[in-house]
Amino acid sequence: MIRIGVVAGSTRPGRKADAVARWVRDIAAARTDVEAELVDLADHPLPHFAEPLPPSMAPSSRPAIRRWGAVVGALDAFVFVTPEYNHSIPGVLKDSIDALYQEWHHKPAGLVGYGVHGGTRAAEHLRLVLGQVSVPVVRSQVALSLHTDFVAFRDFRPGPHQREAVGAMLDEVVAWAGALRTLRHPQPVR
């Protein structure tokens, strides 16, 4: 069983990330090969990065970051749900990634973007950020348009084809998570 965290990557008032993330989580939870949980950044208020050393050199001693690290460390894979803000991801999502290092390694991710242009530019930026912490991002991604998948830019009502797109992305995430299991849990040398 692959444990996937569906990350709601925005904490902004009026955000859509929580509704989209719940939808993705529900699709994932209906599978027999996945245990899916919602990971809402609004539930994990993290300080801005202000450590004397980067997480790759020394883990944080801050309790909020240690709790966040325990959440990320317990998962096998991720689906990041991100809006597009000025052609990129929200600062809170970037901070949540930057706060940790080892906890991300060898855990694949799928991307679900939303915005006027489907959040595709934010997703491409997120691919670069995740690559730096050794998170392989699968090729398939979901692009939700504020014009066609939301009513009056507010109520989330995805087109039926979007469920298929989520399924295809999850197929890849599960396959990668299984393939990378030995890197996440190396066997002792005998």
TrEMBL record:
GO-annotated cellular components: cytosol
InterPro entries documented for this protein: Flavoprotein-like_sf (IPR029039), FMN_Rdtase-like_dom (IPR005025), NAD(P)H-dep_reductase (IPR050712)
Record bears the keyword Glycoprotein: no
Pfam families on file: FMN_red
Protein name: NAD(P)H-dependent oxidoreductase
EC number: 1.-.-.-
Gene Ontology molecular-function annotations: FMN binding; oxidoreductase activity
Domain NADPH-dependent FMN reductase-like: 3-146
PANTHER family according to UniProt: CHROMATE REDUCTASE, NAD(P)H-DEPENDENT FMN REDUCTASE LOT6
Keywords: Oxidoreductase
